[in-house]
């Protein structure tokens, strides 16, 4: 095939997350890593900004400008906005301006989506410019991105802590034997911090400040060093600007309820799993990925709670999209896995 003709047959891997969207372009690697966020002028219904530029406006916009997150807990809640985001990022990923469609797009999805929700994801990607769409459950994509032996008859337990959900699955023989999608992730951690600061320090703060607190001083376990940072917001009583200092021990306390709910749900999933697989998990350990996994000490916290060795993988934020990239680079190699991407056994906890 002529080199110029190959431009018409581009393939992409899309990690469409509640917080961030990453795109891997075949032969090029990761070309897009942007917030899944849109700023819209309500008066004209015009899109003002998408991605990183829209995030700069978060909690700083006038009344006629809305910032929309089109996914809630990993599920599309605003189809048209999701389509616009995908179209924008796919166009951004492709530098050949004359090219408008993708031959193949592999996109990650939560494990518990209904058939209607799966169809809405597929339709959104097709409308955005893809001729053929493959839906891949996030834990499967994560495991491939970690280069785990997912096709072997042995258990690989993967926990992917995203922005809106935490995906947990035990994978064996190319598919998820048992899985669970928890509505706890990086955004829930931010909400916990906002609530704690309001109740304990009598201070209103926004999501950008909560995110900064989580990154700079947040942790799941006690740290040897004492971390603290000044934060600014609006005083609950007076409504005037105010600054307080928050410590890492306070942030850890704010996150404990969500962390405990996560570990309890994982324990329940293990209790529902076949004993041979649980034995394999104990021997091989648990693999932790996703942007939310970057919370300090989360791997040690889960290891202590679950009594199983837990490993934070390298570059956990891009693990899913790297797995999708490996699939689109060599689809034939993953035929068995792709044929299993129907519906893993869900667990109702």
Top-tier CATH class of the largest domain: Alpha Beta
Strand sequence of the main sheet, in spatial order?
Answer: 3-2-1-9-10
CATH homologous superfamily placement of the largest domain: ATPase, nucleotide binding domain
Strand content: 25-35%
Number of helices: 12
Q: What is this structure's SSE topology?
A:
Blueprint: H1 3-6, E1 11-16, E2 20-25, E3 29-35, E4 38-41, E5 46-50, H2 52-55, E6 65-68, E7 71-72, E8 75-76, H3 79-93, E9 104-109, H4 115-128, E10 133-137, H5 138-145, E11 156-161, E12 166-172, E13 175-182, H6 186-201, E14 203-204, H7 207-217, E15 228-235, E16 241-247, H8 248-272, H9 275-284, E17 286-289, H10 298-306, E18 310-312, H11 319-329, H12 335-339
Parallel strand pairs: 1-9, 9-10, 11-17, 17-18
Antiparallel strand pairs: 1-2, 2-3, 4-5, 4-6, 7-8, 11-12, 12-13, 14-15, 15-16
Helix pairs in contact: 3-4, 5-11, 6-7, 6-8
3D structure, described in words:
The protein has 349 residues and is an alpha+beta fold. It folds into three domains: 3-140 and 321-339, ATPase, nucleotide binding domain (Nucleotidyltransferase, domain 5), CATH 3.30.420.40; 150-185 and 258-316, Nucleotidyltransferase, domain 5 (2-Layer Sandwich); 186-254, ATPase, substrate binding domain, subdomain 4 (Actin, Chain A, domain 4, Alpha-Beta Complex). It is 38% helix and 26% strand. It is built from twelve helices and 18 strands. It has helices at residues 3-6, 52-55, 79-93, 115-128, 138-145, 186-201, 207-217, 248-272, 275-284, 298-306, 319-329, 335-339; strands at residues 11-16, 20-25, 29-35, 38-41, 46-50, 65-68, 71-72, 75-76, 104-109, 133-137, 156-161, 166-172, 175-182, 203-204, 228-235, 241-247, 286-289, 310-312. A five-stranded mixed sheet has the order 3-2-1-9-10, sandwiched between helices. Helix 6 (186-201) packs across helix 7 (207-217). The protein starts with a helix and ends in a 10-residue tail after the last helix.
């Amino acid at each position: 095939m002529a080199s110029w003709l190959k431009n018409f047959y581009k393939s992409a891997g899309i990690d469409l997350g509640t917080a961030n969207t990453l795109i891997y372009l075949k032969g090029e690697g990761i070309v897009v890593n942007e917030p899944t966020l849109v700023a819209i002028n309500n008066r004209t219904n015009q899109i003002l900004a998408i991605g990183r530029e829209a995030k700069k406006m978060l909690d700083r916009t006038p009344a006629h400008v809305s910032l929309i997150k089109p996914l809630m807990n990993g599920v599309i809640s605003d189809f048209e906005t999701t389509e616009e985001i995908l179209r924008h990022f796919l166009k951004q990923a492709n530098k050949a301006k004359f090219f408008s469609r993708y031959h193949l797009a592999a996109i990650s999805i939560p494990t518990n989506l209904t058939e209607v929700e799966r169809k809405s994801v597929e339709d959104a990607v097709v409308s955005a410019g893809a001729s053929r769409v493959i839906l891949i459950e996030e834990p499967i994509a994560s495991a491939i991105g970690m280069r785990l032996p997912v096709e072997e008859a042995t258990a690989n337990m993967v926990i992917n802590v995203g922005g809106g959900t935490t995906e947990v699955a035990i994978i064996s023989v190319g598919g998820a034997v048992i899985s669970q999608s928890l509505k706890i992730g990086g955004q829930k951690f931010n909400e916990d911090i906002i609530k704690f600061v309001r109740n304990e320090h009598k201070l209103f703060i926004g999501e950008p400040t909560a995110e900064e607190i989580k990154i700079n001083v947040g942790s799941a376990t006690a740290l040897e060093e004492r971390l603290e940072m000044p934060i600014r917001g609006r005083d609950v009583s007076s409504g005037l600007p105010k600054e307080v200092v928050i410590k890492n021990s306070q942030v850890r306390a704010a996150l404990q309820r969500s962390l405990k709910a996560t570990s309890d749900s994982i324990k329940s999933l293990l209790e529902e799993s076949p004993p041979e697989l649980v034995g394999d998990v104990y021997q091989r350990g648990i693999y932790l990925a996703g942007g939310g996994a970057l919370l300090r000490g989360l791997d040690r916290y889960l290891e202590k709670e679950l009594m199983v060795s837990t490993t934070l993988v390298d570059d956990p934020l891009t693990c899913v999209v790297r797995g999708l990239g490996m699939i689109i680079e060599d689809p034939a190699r993953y035929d068995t896995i792709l044929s299993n991407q129907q519906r893993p056994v869900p667990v109702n906890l």
